[in-house]
Write a structure and sequence with these properties.
Rossmann fold; 2 domains; 6-stranded mixed β-sheet; single chain; alpha/beta; 10 helices; 6-stranded parallel β-sheet; globular; about 300 residues
Length: about 300
Amino acid sequence: MVTGNAMLCGVIGNPVGHSLSPLMHNEIAKALGLDYIYVPCPVEHGTLGEAIRGAYALGFAGLNVTVPYKQEVIPFLTETDVSVRCIGACNTLVRLPDNGAANKGYKGYNTDAEGLFRAMRGQGMEIRGRACLLIGAGGAARAAAYLLVREGAASVTVLNRTPDKAEALAADMRRMAADGGEIAVAALPLAQWRELPGNSYLAIQTTSVGMHPHTDAAPVEDMDFYRKIAQAVDIIYTPSETRFMKHVKAAGGQAAGGLDMLICQGVAALELWNPGLHVPDEVISRVREIMEERLNG
């Protein structure tokens, strides 16, 4: 039930009409009996600062941020979490108490890494001590890179079609790890995957290859590549099973899609806005069913 005292949150971006976040958040709120409402907030280009200040003035307790504003929003934040500073992008704003003009505004977080971590843990995929492959070196890859460093992967090889981007992300990962422990990070052009030593990799696929409507594509087609992978996550959630995932399974590995990551990053944001809240697994399972129905038409 939504009352006049409801907590107000939302998602900003351009466009936002396609976002599944309002469905997800409002279904969770209904299941938990929260006095809470989550709304889509389209923001025109050039008005992001006004939108952030306006949201604070209107009492928004929190906001999610989607494309194209995940980087652009950072200068408008009062504080940032280490996740934002390492990843270089922000997808969640948490309202700071109004304790004077200097403290007004929002603190920025990035829950993509935490969402990926929870999704992988739910599939029994452990990162610590593993040899890992990170496929892609774009914006989505940075959250996965931060997670692999944070959770203590033994080694990471960044595979990307553009070698310079792979090298740059690998260098950033070494900087992330500088204060946190040992990790061996390498970069390799995707076409040279045959140079990978060993097998039983944990792989995270972060490119858009295979996303609807181009579902007949995979980053690599040679099945010998997939025989090197024991477990894999594809962050794409449309379709629910990508060609990459099918190849991993056909080669005898375990593969998971991106829907659980999408849900878990949203749950992580909701829990930031409601300290002490824990969303039960049965609620997450029900929300997953509802979102699958929506995605599958």
